[in-house]
Design a protein that fits this description.
The protein has helices spanning 9-17, 22-33, 36-55, 63-82, 104-163, and strands at residues 168-174, 183-188, 193-200, 207-215, 221-226, 233-240, 247-256, 267-272. By secondary structure, the protein is an alpha+beta fold. The protein folds into three domains: 9-101, no CATH class; 102-163; 168-272, Immunoglobulin-like (Sandwich). An eight-stranded antiparallel sheet has the order 5-4-7-8-1-2-3-6, with helices on one face. It is rod-shaped and about 120 Å long. The N and C termini lie far apart (113 Å). The relative contact order is 0.09. Mean pLDDT is 77; it is low at 84-99.
């Protein structure tokens, strides 16, 4: 390499690895000290060498590797001691002030710090995931507690309705002779609560049963949809209607899924007061 030429990246990487002979390393240092571009390239070469630590596959060396490596180190030191004067590039000053590659102990310290930083990042991610899991579990428990409170309130309302002296019982029968289903309605005008129990056959998926309170005066009042379409319905069901509504009948009709504001389908069950 003549004066004014730039050092190849491969040589810089060998220097960063500490693999250049002492004579060539000193000549490279002298050139880099006066060349801004090669100084920048040397920094890149050191970065490339650092990345090798993550890219290399970790393997257990054989027993002879350490002895061979130490022999080479001793040979290089002896050769460096026999050399007379260092070689410099034409027109360049020999400068010993350029920083050489870090000593092995410092390099291992740097890798130890990098490994510690990576371990800390992994622990932080783990703690974040655990915090999310705990938060989700607490939210699940909170929702379960709220559901239990709602169920408790519902049961109390049912007990109050059934025990109330003004609660009336209305038996529902099939609206015609072909319908064999029956049902029972418990209704408290003071509470405006309707309780219903029956067994009804499955409907097509686009249909649902709908309960109606037929008041003494005015249009029927919806008392809710009985279960999803496409499935049989059989359960204890409750609904809220306007308080103090005096009924003259209760009825169940077949309506489109989602219900209707007023009865539009065939009656299934009917019970007059």
């Amino acid at each position: 390499m003549s004066h004014g030429e730039h050092i190849r990246l491969e040589e810089l990487e060998l220097y960063a690895l500490g693999a250049l002979p002492s004579q060539e390393a000193e000549a490279l240092e002298a050139h880099v000290s006066d060349c801004a571009e090669c100084t920048a390239n040397l920094a890149q070469a050191r970065g490339n060498v650092a990345l090798l630590a993550f890219a290399a596959k970790q393997e257990q060396p054989s027993a002879s590797v350490k002895a061979e490596l130490m022999g080479r180190v001793r040979a290089n030191r002896e050769a460096a001691g026999r050399q007379a004067t260092p070689t410099t590039f034409p027109g360049q000053k020999d400068k010993e002030s350029l920083v050489r590659p870090p000593k092995p102990s410092n390099e291992w310290l740097n890798w130890l710090l990098v490994a510690a930083a990576i371990a800390l990042a992994v622990v932080s991610v783990g703690l974040s995931l655990e915090n999310r899991r705990i938060t989700a579990e607490l939210d699940k428990q909170r929702k379960a507690a709220e559901a239990m409170i709602r169920d408790h309130d519902q049961i109390e309302k049912l007990v109050t309705t059934l025990a109330s002296p003004d609660t009336m019982t209305v038996k529902l029968n099939g609206a015609d002779a072909t319908i064999k289903s029956t049902g029972v309605v418990k209704y408290s005008p003071r509470e405006g609560v309707v309780l219903y129990s029956a067994e009804l056959p499955a409907l097509p998926p686009d249909k649902s049963y709908q309960m109606w309170l037929v008041p003494a005066n005015g249009a029927p009042i919806s008392a809710g949809i009985l279960g999803p379409g496409g499935k049989p319905w059989g359960n204890l069901w409750t609904a809220q209607v306007p308080v103090n509504t005096q009924p003259k009948a209760f009825a169940v009709t077949i309506e489109p899924v989602g219900g209707m504001p007023q009865p539009s389908g065939p009656k299934v069950l009917l019970g007059a007061i």
